[in-house]
Amino acid sequence: ASFGFKTVPEDLKESLVKNVFDSVASKYDLMNDATSLGVHRLWKDEFVSSLRPGRKGAMKCIDVAGGTGDIALRILDYAREKHYDRETTVDVVDINAQMLKEGHKRFKQTMYHNKSNAQDLGEQFIDNTYDLYTIAFGIRNCTSIPDVLKEAHRVLKPGGTFACLEFSRVDNPLLSTIYDQYSFSIIPLLGTLLAGDRESYQYLVESIRKFPPQSEFAQMIRDAGFSTAKDVDGGAWVNLWGGIACIHTGVKL
Ligand code: SAM
């Protein structure tokens, strides 16, 4: 079976995504390292250090689709190591309890965590609360990107930052060919060999190709009420590895 969303009605996408992450949760960290050859760590480091958490004293952060806590841990480490800030907090939110459970094993009692849908965070997440909203490799799994952006805008304080790390579009034709070969053959193969689950990894690759390109996503961020820098690499977005991944930021007006 293929998990291409063209054949899957949108209202089924959420349960499909849940099944995918239920089935990969216990192997998620290992598989991330294997499929990206560890590069996801570099991208996540760059994502968090570009946001400089703790730079203006303690920040209240929310990491949505936070999974096993990679971004939250980096935010807390960065604030503590670079700014001697131990007061910054991160609320980790994910739709999938299994992923959060894996994350909780890492954090033990040190962190608050929450099960919630990025598209409708719920009343416990109060308007105008957060200085920083992060979402890494999560938004493309959501049925409605505009709903996620709307919720991000709602919970951020005016002047707060929205930051998204996501797979994106590669412009360079040579890099694009190599990357396609790698994603369509090696990643599902690694899924089969290491996690016994080809279909979930096939889905992950397909979902990357369906995500809007850099400028289109930047426009969606503006449509949700954020201001962004100019529509260029280094402005509204910063490409990592030629656009394999990309950081988008916007500030709540
Ligand atoms: N941010 C983590 C990281 O970078 O390692 C996890 C990324 S993982 C590829 C995607 C996560 O998005 C999964 O944990 C999944 O459960 C979560 N997710 C998918 N749809 C969601 C939704 N509608 N609301 C909240 N989380 C969602």
Question: How would you sum up this structure, described in words?
Answer:
With 253 residues, the protein is α/β, with parallel strands linked by helices. It has one domain: 3-Layer(aba) Sandwich (Rossmann fold). The chain contains 9 helices and 8 strands. The chain has helices spanning 10-24, 28-36, 39-51, 70-83, 97-107, 145-155, 173-195, 198-210, 214-223, and strands spanning 60-64, 89-94, 113-115, 130-136, 156-167, 226-227, 237-240, 245-252. α1 (10-24) packs across α8 (198-210) and α7 packs antiparallel against α8 (198-210). The longest helix is centred in the C-terminal third of the chain and has 23 residues, at 173-195. Bound molecules: S-adenosylmethionine. S-adenosylmethionine is lined by residues 17, 21, 65-67, 70-71, 94-96, 99, 117-119, 136-138, 141-142. Belongs to the class I-like SAM-binding methyltransferase superfamily. MenG/UbiE family. One of its GO terms (biological process) is methylation. This is 2-methoxy-6-polyprenyl-1,4-benzoquinol methylase, mitochondrial.
